[in-house]
Amino acid sequence: MRAVALAVLLAAAPAAAQQAPLMVPMRDVAITYRSTGGGDPVTISMAWSAARKAVRMDMPGMGWSVANHGATPPSGFIVMEEARRVMDMPAQVLNRQIGAPRDARFVREGSDRIAGQACTVWRYQSGADEGRVCLTADGVMLRSQGSFAGQPGGMEATQVTYAPQDPSRFDPPAGYQRMPLRR
After folding, report:
1. With the C-alpha atoms ordered 85, 90, 95, 99, is the resulting torsion angle positive or negative?
2. Which of 9, 11, 21, 174 is the most exposed place for a label (fewest CB within 10 A)?
3. CB of 121 closer than 8 Å to CB of 134
4. Does the reported pTM lie above 0.70?
5. Reading across the β-sheet that carries 129-135, which strands appear in turn?
6. Is 89 exposed, middle or buried (0-12, 13-18, 19+ CB in 10 A)?
């Protein structure tokens, strides 16, 4: 499960390196992924709100999270359904929520087709963090494979649906106890 969470974090922050690909979808989309690279496969669902520049990630047995990269400053939260709690997302997690490290260098390696969508394969590196992502021209990540802090992980899209996303799915649930980060 740790590898799956790592893959999501690798897959899902806009990179600031020269010639960096678009890493944030330009329109609303829902993507279903399966984990790759060992262990039992896990299904992960992600939904993007282009207007908010926000991503919601649902992981079975773990709850769900939202990273709002359109907020100033960026913000996010994690929902623990069973405990009926909402915890603010730590900055280091938020910074990794949508992709490769911010300072990554990218090299274009070719193209592929995943879940019926064309994508460009990019190799990235930032210090010890390295991997490959396959991104559509409009910023949807279809595959991610790499390492973060020495931990390998990966995921690949199995379904991509371009459709408006319900804005309420990107808000904390009403009536849940809020747990702010301790500073």
Report:
1. negative
2. 174
3. yes
4. yes
5. 105-114, 117-126, 129-135, 141-148, 151-161, 29-35, 43-49, 54-59, 63-68, 75-80, 85-88, 177-179
6. buried
- Helix residue spans in the chain (DSSP H): 2-11, 91-94
Q: Which structure tokens are listed for 12?
A: 């899902």
What DSSP assignment string belongs to 111-154? EEEETTEEEEEEEEEETTEEEEEEE-TTS-EEEEEEEETTEEEE
Computed over every residue of the chain, the mean pLDDT equals 83
Query: Mind listing the pLDDT tens digit for each residue in 42-55?
Result: 899 999 999 998 99
Residues ≥6 apart with Cβ < 8 Å to 95: 13, 102
How far is the C-alpha of 66 from the C-alpha of 159, rounded, in Å?
20
Query: Domains of the chain, with CATH numbers?
Result: 2-164 (2.50.20.10)
CB atoms within 10 A of CB 5: 18
Task: Tell me how crowded residue 113 is: count the other CB atoms within 10 A of its CB.
Answer: 10
Closest to 143 in 3D by CA, of 125, 161, 119: 119
